[in-house]
Amino acid sequence: MAWLLPGWGHLWLGRFRTGLILLIALLSMFTIGIGLEGSLFPFDTEKPFIFLGALANLGIGALYFFVRFFNLDEGRVVAVAYEHGNTFLIVSGLLNFLVILDAYDIARGRK
Length: 111
Fold this sequence. Notes:
This protein is mostly helical and 111 residues long.
């Protein structure tokens, strides 16, 4: 559940404030990345760095599939903020992976 919606794991564990902050922050980062005309990387196993970028993008969860389904990720390479948008998209996915691990540690009693 924590992967599908950022912050859901913390909300489920009763850490409502933390969960809401993570939800808002990560969804905002992803939305800013799309707004800056960034694009999601395709799954191309022949190009390892492109493939790793796609895995990082997938970290944001269900929002990834929503954006892909409606073709909202058609960033323009010539846009001034294209690389910044890509960075926001990648970092939001990677941060969600860390948030998932944090929720797992809390659930296991390690924190």
